């Protein structure tokens, strides 16, 4: 990571102000690097902490949450001006801390004292409501920018491609996108109740979900999973609830043969095996990806989870890496813009542009076409993305079906709304999750 130094001229008079200046310099360096290199913020900050081991857990929390807070509210706070100007950046930090309800009030007040908005007669309140409208009002009062709107928290190009038109639905989506979802997980190799008991013994707060009988909600607390026995022993797998919908829609039967054509590190492969166990006899999964390091990670996770019925078949060429017309089910979790994961990765909405959406559909259709050849007659083809964009979802499926009449759409029941549909979109505001899209098709002949 290259150093991008904030030109600080301010003089600290208290210990809190000294810490505020030190944090500001570090956060500016990270923030400016993300904007200039367009590397994901979680990667940039992970590399930073790997190189700077001096930071304790509190320092790491202040730096990490302040960095992501800047990106979460960037649609508003970028209107304060050029972030490379000292007083403006302090205003941005103070704004983000206020909007996030961060508990380090002394640090926030230090940033505020150095900012262009400082007014000793008008201290900022904390906390404020989680309502995005209340936060908007607070920002407008603090900044005197009364033209700020809720929709600005997502980039213009998002709204140009997003199918939502209702003002209320837009507000609900932005409200969800402006908060962090809980850590969702699954129980495997044991009942959810048994896994919850294991978590309780490690003093980990957790609860079940009304939607699926293996889903576990771990809340918003930071966890060192390597110190959680349920995880190290393979009984707990981290997987967002929206992502779990994909496996549930696949609904693999006992002793069936499935191919996970774009497996990545294998979260859905493990879920499919776990669901097969619920049905009785365990089936078999073959997982493929063009990234060999992801498949290596999959095998590590499978070993930790004690799943033996999984093998890998890397995509090495354009040729199908598995048998044609062989599988009961094929899952294509296609590469996409990942707009559905913006709650966890708020930086991506500002370092990406519309090309993140428009460049993907051709590739997605190509992968879907190739993978369909592996489905046997009567078998199922599942297409999924973590995108909220119609051009990556419904449009790709429509293009596939137009040239593949031997496949037909299956009807699905939306697990969060009860709606019956053939094109299932999970919106983040429906169940405090990421966003996902999934369809299931059956090969007729």
Automatic annotation (TrEMBL):
Record: residues binding S-adenosyl-L-methionine: 289, 333
Active-site residues, record numbering mapped to chain: 386 (nucleophile)
UniProt keyword terms in alphabetical order: Methyltransferase, RNA-binding, S-adenosyl-L-methionine, Transferase
GO biological process, one term: methylation
A molecular function GO annotation: methyltransferase activity
One Pfam family cited in the UniProt record for this chain: Methyltr_RsmB-F
InterPro entries: MeTrfase_RsmB-F_NOP2_cat (IPR049560), MeTrfase_RsmB-F_NOP2_dom (IPR001678), RCMT (IPR023267), SAM-dependent_MTases_sf (IPR029063)
Family designation: Belongs to the class I-like SAM-binding methyltransferase superfamily. RsmB/NOP family.
Name assigned to this protein: RsmB/NOP family class I SAM-dependent RNA methyltransferase
Organism of origin: Shewanella aestuarii
